[in-house]
Amino acid sequence: MTALGKLLRTTAFQLTLVYLVVFALFAAFLLGYFALNTRRLINEQIVAIVDAELQLLQVQYNEAGVRRLVGIVGVRSRRPGSSLYLVTTPTGEGLAGNVGSLEPGVLESEGWVETAYRRLEEPESTEHNALVRVVRLPGGIRILVGRDLDERERMFHIVALAGRWSVAIVIVLGVIGGVFVSRRVLKRVDAMTGTAQTIMAGDLSGRLSVIGSGDEFDRLALNLNGMLERIESLMRGLKEVTDNVAHDLKTPLTRLRNRCEAALRTAKTEADFRRVLEESIEESDGLIRTFDALLMIARAESGEVREGMAEFDVSEVARDVSELYEPLAEDKGLTLEVEATKRAAVKGNRELVSQALANLVDNAIKYAAPVAKQPSGAGNGERGGILVKADTEQDRVVLTVSDRGPGIPQDDRSRVVERFVRLEQSRSLPGSGLGLSLASAVARLHGGELKLEDNAPGLRARISLPRAVMPPQQAA
Amino acid sequence: MSDAAAADSCVSGAYLVRSMRLLIIEDDRDAADYLVKAFREVGHVADHAADGEEGLALALDGGYDVLIVDRMLPKLDGLAVIGRLRAKNVATPALILSALGAVDDRVRGLRAGGDDYLPKPYSFSELLARVEVLARRHVGRGGETLYRVADLELDRLSHRVVRGKEEILLQPREFRLLEYLMKHAGQVVTRTMLLENVWDYHFDPQTNVIDVHISRLRSKIDKGFAQPLLHTVRGAGYMIRDGAR
């Protein structure tokens, strides 16, 4: 597309053209209306003057006859810039007046007519137009009175000229303005298109330029940049996930395959095969769990589950989940206490928040449990407490799970929330490495966040969620 | 090994209490063949329909104890099949199988008239246990107020549990756990079924928390009695059963 073609196709230019046409038509209409009205006004004036003079002449004729009439006309004809007069005999011979020649047939018909004429005193001059009225008097005498139309024509000319100029100026200014605006718009749009193309080519780090004028293009660019930011982080997350999925799912799959292969090679008895098959099923179940967790995280992150959100009490969730895990904790030599008496309403998905909390409690039990190898009661007693707490802080609802386990070093705390990240020291324990990621995704889905803090010693996992607006009787 | 064999034998014994007629509406031929064969092995009769329309026609003919309906089917969607059956007042219990497996998908399935929902992939023992429960529920035991297995009694109105002449004190959740197990006495109840029906959770709690709850319950109702009633069914779940029967 040529530069001109591009310019002509811009919305700005096309809009300018439309406005141009509208304004030109408007100007033309206005001037036309003005011209027509002026013409009418002048005509009315002429008619009034001519009628008055005719009436006067008729009265004079009726009172004093043709001689007086001719006398008066003679006097009046000689005044400068005067009206046109002509008095003729019934046969059409001129008796008095200042009209030299007329279009043929004008005198024959009574009433108003526009005609070209020449004045008697200047027969060589060009013809002028005049509006005249012919009246036949009793006795066959005819009087013609009229006014020159020059004034009217001049007026009309001025208006027509003004009209032409103003339309021309509107068009020129409009086109210049249109080109200017379109080029400005085009420049911004071209810059955006260019950036978009580099992004489409695969460079997600490109950003649209923001001039800082705060105009609609800046706002658009800011929003698009925000969108790009989000897409880039999602893509980065996705890439990380694919890498991790590749690693963390391929490892058990390889194990599964190797085990089957080994069984085919070495297993002899049915019992051998049976054992391998059972192990394989167990391994597959683990894989399925990992997949489920991944899908769950993906759904929570995409916000797909938002439709099923309702108000529920987080304290109740804390009590229920603690009740579910309490026997397990006791089994592992830990105490699990719950502090959740205050109603803490949150709008969201109860199931997901329960699962997130369950993951945190499960983690706490898993990592804070006294190591089995050590003899029981050998100074591990102080490790025993896990505290699940639900509380409200201003407009937030806070769920915390604190343990007295080894905790997580400061530097690793943000990393463990990521998918599949498992610290070296925990690799030996069962788990998909997705528990914290899911808890974090659920918190974010509800507009909250998951934070890991130092419980000195131990770890305090803290989910804060926006508090639902409570009905008035609850707020008291 | 011998332990496993013993468990297996007693499990199939329990399964054979009553033979069921099942209809499997599933478009994946391999999966359907596997299910038909597996159900036959444990003594049930299973028919197979490969698409929604055929399945609907067969289900309308009646005579089935439970329908196993895949969520996504050619010609007529699984939920639509169930919807049309319910519209014609066919109340045959239906279990929905779905590869989607999300929270909202389960809700949608149950709202459409399904009675239970199982996400793919599932284990056969899980499916079997759920189908058994559905078939039995159709016959109906929900109205009873007193459950009894051997000398164990649970009164649903007074919330009292008595074994022999001894009253057993249970926590509220333990009571509900026992209530559910006894409601389905003689049937295998899986861990996920317990989690769904006793705790109302539909997620996987990673560690097997249910096992710990069961062993607590067991220590209250079985400890000190000669005959254990609460049994672990290997690879499937738990069952309350009068062992002497």
Poorly predicted segments of chain A: 372-381
Number of helices of chain B: 9
How many DSSP H or I helices of chain A? 9
The 3D shape of chain B can be described as elongated
Under the CATH scheme, the architecture of the largest domain in chain A is 2-Layer Sandwich
Number of strands of chain B: 12
Q: What's the Cα radius of gyration of chain B?
A: 19 Å
The pLDDT mean of chain A sits at 81
Summarize the biggest pleated sheet of chain B: 5 strands, parallel
Task: Report the CATH C-level class of the largest domain in chain A.
Answer: Alpha Beta
The CATH topology of the largest domain in chain A is what? Heat Shock Protein 90
Number of domains of chain A: 4
User: What is the CATH H-level superfamily of the largest domain in chain B?
Assistant: Response regulator
Structural notes for this entry:
The complex is a heterodimer of chains A (476) and B (245). Chain A is α+β, with helices and mostly antiparallel strands and 476 residues long. Chain A folds into four domains: 11-154, Beta-Lactamase (2-Layer Sandwich), CATH 3.30.450; 200-234; 237-302, Helix Hairpins (Orthogonal Bundle), CATH 1.10.287; 306-372 and 382-475, 2-Layer Sandwich (Heat Shock Protein 90), CATH 3.30.565.10. Chain A has nine helices and 13 strands. Chain A has a six-stranded antiparallel β-sheet. A five-stranded mixed β-sheet of chain A has the order 8-10-11-13-12. The longest helix of chain A has 68 residues, at 11-78. In chain A, 26% of the residues are buried. Chain B is of the alpha/beta class and 245 residues long. Chain B has a five-stranded parallel β-sheet, sandwiched between helices. In chain B, strands 6-7-8-9 form a four-stranded antiparallel β-sheet, covered by helices on one side. A three-stranded antiparallel β-sheet of chain B has the order 10-12-11. In chain B, a hairpin with a 2-residue loop joins β8 (160-163) and β9 (166-168). The radius of gyration of chain B is 19 Å and the shape is elongated. Chain B starts with a helix and ends in a 5-residue tail after the last strand. Chain A binds chain B through residues 271, 274, 278, 281, 284-285, 288-289, 292-293, 295-296, 299, 304-305, 307-308, 320, 323-325, 327-328, 331, 349, 351-352, 354-355, 358-359, 362, 365-366, 431-432, 435, and chain B through 1, 101-104, 107, 119, 121, 123, 173, 199, 201-207, 209, 212-213, 215-216, 235.
